[in-house]
Structure formats: C-alpha cells, structure tokens
Amino acid sequence: MTDxxxxxxxxxxxxxxxxxxxxxxxxxxAARPExxxxxxxxxxxxxxxPDGAPGGPDVAPGAPGDGxxxxxxxxxxxxxxxxxxxREDYSLRYAPHSFRRWSPGVVAGTAxxxxxxxxxxxxxxxxxxxxxxxxxxxxxxxxxxxxxxxxIPIARACAKYGLDMxxxxxxxxxxxxxxxxxxxIYASFTFIFFALEGSIxxxxxxxxxxxxxxxxxxxxxxxxxxIVFRGMGALAKVQAWTQPIWIIxxxxxxxxxxxxxxxxxxxxxSFGGTEGAGSGFSWIGFGLGTGVALSLIxxxxxxxxxxxFMPAKTEANKRRWNIAVLAAGPGWVIIGAAKxxxxxxxxxxxxxAVGKTHALEPIAPQxxxxxxxxxxxxxxxxxxxxxxxxxxxxxxxxxSGSLSWSNFFSRxxxxxxxxxxxxxxNLVIALxxxxxxxxxxLNKLLGFYxxxxxxxxxxxxxxxxxxxxxxxxxPYIEFKRAYLYAVNPAGFGAMLIASTVSILAFFGLxxxxxxxxxxxxxxxxxxxxxxxxxxxTRGKYYLARPNPVNGPGVEVxxxxxxxxxxxxxxxxxxxxxxxxxxxxGPICSLCCSLxxxxxxxxxxxxxxxxxxxxxxxxxxxAGEGAAANASRV
Length: 633
What we know:
Layout: H1 15-18, H2 80-83, H3 85-88, H4 104-113, H5 119-131, H6 133-161, H7 165-174, H8 178-209, H9 213-222, H10 225-230, H11 232-260, H12 264-269, H13 283-293, H14 299-307, H15 318-328, H16 332-359, H17 363-374, H18 378-413, H19 419-435, H20 442-467, H21 489-506, H22 512-516, H23 518-536, E1 562-564, E2 571-573, E3 577-580, E4 585-588, H24 589-594, H25 601-604, E5 612-614, E6 630-632
Antiparallel strand pairs: 1-2, 3-4, 5-6
Helix pairs in contact: 4-11, 4-14, 4-15, 5-6, 5-13, 5-16, 6-13, 6-14, 6-15, 6-16, 6-20, 7-8, 7-20, 7-21, 8-9, 8-18, 8-19, 8-20, 9-19, 11-17, 11-18, 13-20, 16-17, 17-18, 18-19, 20-21, 20-23, 21-23
C-alpha cells in the first residue's frame, strides 16, 4: 500500500490491452481491506450490512481483480485508511447501493441526531436580546422558511443520487473546480460551529466541575476523535444511544416552566431586548436578525452527508423514503427554529438571576429552569444534557468537515491519504477559534458568514428547481471530472456575484437598509442569476462531453452493475465510472480525480473516438457470461 493515492503512470496508455473483463461485484464491498493484496477470488466474498446496522460487520472496499486471474499489482493502491470504506465512507465518491443498507428510518434518525446542538439556544437568545421579541420572532420564522424551501430539492437530490453536498454542487451549476470554493465555505461552516458548540460545552464543564474553559476547549475537541474516526456506523450508534438523554434534557426545562412560571410566555412576548430595541417591529432589526439566523443554512450539507446513505426509493418504501428525506433534510429547521425560540425564552427567564452575559450561555438558563424541581441536582443534570448535546453535534461537525477538506485537497493536490486525516485539520482550526473566544463576536461572525452561505445554497437550489426542470442543465447530477468543465458560470458565477454584492452591502456600502437585508440580496441575486446565466450560455458549461456510461439517453438495465477500474482494479457501480481515453477503459471517479498526468484529454479532445469498454457485471450475475465481450460506447 502507498501512503497516499498517487497514480503510477508507467504504462498508463497501454492499460486497455492489459485490462480484462471486470471481475468485481457490489458484494465485494464486504471484503476486508487486507483483501486488496489477496487473490482475485476474494471478490466472491459474501455481502454484509454496514457497520452500525443490526448484526452487520464493518464494510470495506472491494478487492482488486481483472476477471482474468491476473496477479499484476494495480497501478494505484490506496493508503490503508483511504481504502477502508468502513471508515472512509465513500468520502469522495458516489455511495453505492451495496453500501446503503440502512433503512430510511435509521438514516433519518442519525441525521436528525446531529441537530442536538445548543447553538440554536445561543443564536435565538442573541437575536431576541438584540432586536426584541417581535422582530426576533419574525427573523427566526423568515430564516426557517428560506432554509426549509431551499433544503427540499437539495435533500432529495443527495438521497436519490447517493452524493454529498460537494458532489451535488459540482453537477448543479458549479463545475469540477468551481465547487472547490464551496468546499471551503462548507468546511468553514463546520469548524465555526464546532468552535461555537465546543465553547458551550466548555462553559458547561467549567460551571459543573470548575474546569478552566481553555482546558475544556481541548477536551471538547479530543473527545470526538475516536467516534468520527470510525465513520457512519459509529455515528449512527452514538446518535441512537444518546437520543433518550437528549430528549429528556430538551423537554424537561419547558415542562418545569409550564408549571412554575406559566406567565413567562406572556411577559416574553412583550420583551424589548437588552439593547433598547423595544417590543415593536423594526425592519432593520428584522433584516439583521434574519441574517444571523440564516447562518445555519449550510446545515443542509451536514444533513446531506447522512442522506446520501438513504436506500434506493422503491414502490414498497416510497412513503417512508419521502417522509424520512423531508424530515431529515429540510425538516431539521422546524426543530431548529423551535429551539431558537425556546432558548430565547429560557434566557429571558434567567436574565435577572444570572445577568445578560451568562443568559446567552445555554448552561446557565438550563440550570435556572431546572432548579424548582431538581434543586442542587439541577447543575449536574444541566451539565450532562449540554455535554451530550454537544457531543452529538460535534461528531457531525467533525465528520462533515473531514469530508469537505477531503474534497478540497484531493482536487488541489491530486492526493488522498484518507478522510480521517482531515479530522485533525478541522479540529485544530476549531480549537484555535475557541481559544480566540469567537463566542463573544457571535452575531457579527454569523451575519457575515450567512451572506456567502446563502449565495451558495440558493444557486444550487435554483439549478435543481429551475434549470433542470426547463432543460437548461442535464436532468441528472453529473459529478465526475471526466465529463465536467472546470468552472460552470451558471452556479459559480451567480454565487460569486451575489456574495460579493451582499458582503459589500453587509459592510454598509449601500446604506443602512441594504446592510440589514444583505442576506436577502444574496439570496435574490443568486436565485435570479443562476438561471439567467444558464440561459445566456445555453447550458453549454454543464457537460464537457456526453456520459456514455450512465448519462441521459443511455439504456442501463441495472444501475448497480459494476465495472472494474483499470487503474486501482476495484469494482464500482456504474454511476462511479467514467470512460477514459488515456486508460482506454473504465476508470473510477476517485482515480480520475487524482490523475495529475492525463492533461484532461477526455474533455479537451472529446472527439478522439469511442473508448473500448467491457460489459458491466450485473448484481444478480446475469451479465457474467457476457462480461468478456467488449462493447463500444
């Protein structure tokens, strides 16, 4: 095994002559990583359920094999951690059907477990304290509506095509390198919110056991590493095991308030904030508050990181599938908005007892709400709830961050040492932000970030809802380098223009109202410009060349059929395969991404003629007899 996935270019152009018929099948995913050095017969390993599914073993990538019994080592081998899909979780790839064996309910439950975060409490309290209840309430509701509507098409696309947010962005108007910038935007979302959640957890440990907050920052960072290292299986278990504690801790303070302070809601409704905003409605306060709440719009990316493991939609499961995707995709914001208002209420009730600074820290209002019933036990109970909540969300933040950094660096460096190494990069940045006390600049930081985040998400949503429906972009999501332009001006251009204008507005260049409504400017421009640019360019920059493997118009009997990559010699399902003129055969999406020597011949000279491709291997074995027959595509 090599330490990183580096192409071995010797003999690359002669690949077609040496490449035999594919010898792998999706069942090979059950093989252990060590099988990469084993005989081709290892491809006959029996399938197993994913790690974390009931009774299922860990899942790892398929063993190499060319179907002809060749013992020649593959031209690229992956580092052990990158090759182990039970930890790698197809971080840069399409998630194959053979890996997606969780039920819709399990996937949805795992995805919704990630919204246990208490930043909603702090954000809601900060908005209401700054702009008053009326403007704050309107802000939270408006942001939730925008997030919900933009999240629907994105969640459905990720679940349908088995792709994470970065891969969907590539094919939804941004292009292969255009989505590199959005990977950075998404990565920044994960480490900003990891730092915010870690700060809340450190505050809880400081209050509960007197641990210095700086030490608390370090502990909150280190505690998630063993869980995130294990991947989706471990995340599913953690979210399921901790859910009962979280539900009790979330509901109990409001039950206590309902009995002990029934008039709190009435007084809260006339609260004018702590900054002199007043209890009436203010357009300026509404705009600024909405901008802060919209900083959470990129959360759909974290939901997508789980939704890509949704099983295929069938007649038998379509009702459960639709409900699960809606609930775990955009549905998170319904709970999120309720948490923002609930957090603001708890902070309001605790304001007189703990003061403004501590009221904005979720642990203090939690303690005050529980005291009437739990007395001295309120502190440890509140601390347990906060710690559990922050672990639930920060494993998701760290996991999603590792995916986004993997996508970014694989395209920049043409190397992929494995998703798990980028966990540490994300955590180091988050820890630095915590030590810099980013919690103190919450509103300004989140307000700025939301301008970029919404410009990105709105452009993707516009492509999925408008461009694809009226034929300006392909009817499917194409994410492979072999078929994409480096940059598509439709989505990438719309995002760049929208975010630039809105950031200038945010810093006051266009006046007070434009500053307050900068996020609305970002959303409106992005939604408008994406279809306009696609129309102006006639959709030219979506596909550099047709996809003859599983593109539009190609008859595919079984989408789960496999080809063996002519570079790494591992079997992958058709959506993960491209036809490569340099290799003169099939190549998997990751080997294609990591190739630094090919010069993008397939895109620059698409008229070089057809590529000889073997027949794919069908899941049920129906195609095995024809596997040795080549067909031109």
